[in-house]
Design a protein that fits this description.
By secondary structure, the chain is mostly helical. 73% of the residues lie in helices and 0% in strands. It is a multi-pass membrane protein.
Length: 139
Amino acid sequence: MAFESAGAGELFLLGRLLFGGVLAFMGLNHFQNAGQMTPYAEAKGLPAPAASVYGSGGLLLASGVLVIFGAYPVIAAGALTTFLVASAVMMHNFWVVPDEQVQDEMTQFLKNIALAGGALVLLAVAGTSWPYSVGMSLF
């Protein structure tokens, strides 16, 4: 299996803590800074921008915590992958912004795509037994 080598389970747990922790923190940030994020979401043309900020914050927070605990990995990793790719394309479309915003938007775009890659890796191993997890899964 994927975690048979010495220390692999511990490294996987550390990776889940870091990855899930950053995503959960990003979700909390949506709630704490919704007043600043809502006008940005509105400027990007999102319908119901305030609800979008809170909804995406909830998704990031819940999915991040699920990754940390190793619970419902298919749901958590699938939701994160979908959200991060959609967010990269819709919110950080560096190819259509003014020149002075291109670098910031490209950085955010690439960050989301890299995080989506990490979520895909978790999705790829979601059917295996995750070391140090609570063992809750639908599949």
